[in-house]
């Protein structure tokens, strides 16, 4: 049974694997359109405008904010601005695509205000210890940054009741299949 295509928002604490689950869905479920964020940061090597991000100047981004063109947006780490353009999400839904928006908790709350009939899914770790192991194992943050992210994660975990569904990320493929099923799509056979 397939639901009408619409918007599903995926959020959860740091190091829970939102990006990993989203990438698995992108690679294995072409019927799901992963929203592409706009950002004021410069492209990294290999990143393509319109594929990885919509790269905007600070002035362009501010103009879009003033015009009310974002479902959600935020300044991240006090430096660059990121946001989800309403037009790209609405266009994908109009084309009959199921849209997955992978964002942080702050963004999810903004989307809930803007699109209350969207579906909100909280991606949770199997345990606190596993989440700590994943964050430390990435090796991409300093010890101070890891501690800051873990403090933030405690607050993010407390937001779980704000969501329609919770998916435990104990196995990427299983979690992705469960999320796709919640979107009203049939998971791929094994």
Could you describe the 3D structure shown?
The structure is a single chain. Strand 5 and strand 6 form a beta hairpin. The protein is globular. The chain has one domain: P-loop containing nucleotide triphosphate hydrolases (Rossmann fold, 3-Layer(aba) Sandwich). The chain is of the alpha/beta class. Helices cover 40% and strands 21% of the residues. It has helices at residues 18-28, 58-66, 86-94, 105-114, 128-138, 143-157, 172-182; strands at 7-11, 32-34, 38-39, 54-55, 70-76, 80-85, 98-102, 119-124, 165-168. The chain contains 7 helices and 9 strands, in the order E-H-E-E-E-H-E-E-H-E-H-E-H-H-E-H. The protein has a 5-stranded parallel beta sheet with strand order 2-7-1-8-9, sandwiched between helices. The model has no long low-confidence stretch (mean pLDDT 90).
Blueprint (SSEs and pairs):
Blueprint: E1 7-11, H1 18-28, E2 32-34, E3 38-39, E4 54-55, H2 58-66, E5 70-76, E6 80-85, H3 86-94, E7 98-102, H4 105-114, E8 119-124, H5 128-138, H6 143-157, E9 165-168, H7 172-182
Parallel strand pairs: 1-7, 1-8, 2-7, 3-4, 8-9
Antiparallel strand pairs: 3-6, 5-6
Helix pairs in contact: 1-7
């Amino acid at each position: 049974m397939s639901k009408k295509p619409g918007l599903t928002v995926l959020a959860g604490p740091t190091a829970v694997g939102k990006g990993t689950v989203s990438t698995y869905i992108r690679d294995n479920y072409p019927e799901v359109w992963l929203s592409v964020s706009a950002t004021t940061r410069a492209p990294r090597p290999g990143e393509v405008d319109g594929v990885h991000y919509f790269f905007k100047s600070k002035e362009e981004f501010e103009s879009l904010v003033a015009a009310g063109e974002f479902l959600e947006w935020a300044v991240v780490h006090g430096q660059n601005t990121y946001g989800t353009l309403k037009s790209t999400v609405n266009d994908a839904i109009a084309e009959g695509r199921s849209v997955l928006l992978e964002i942080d908790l702050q963004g999810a709350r903004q989307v809930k205000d803007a699109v209350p009939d969207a579906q909100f899914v909280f991606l949770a770790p199997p345990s606190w210890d596993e989440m700590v192991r994943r964050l430390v194992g990435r090796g991409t943050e300093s010890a101070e940054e890891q501690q800051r992210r873990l403090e933030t994660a405690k607050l993010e975990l407390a937001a779980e009741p704000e969501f329609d569904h919770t998916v435990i990320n104990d196995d990427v493929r299983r979690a992705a299949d469960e999320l796709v099923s919640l979107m009203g799509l049939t998971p791929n056979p094994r």
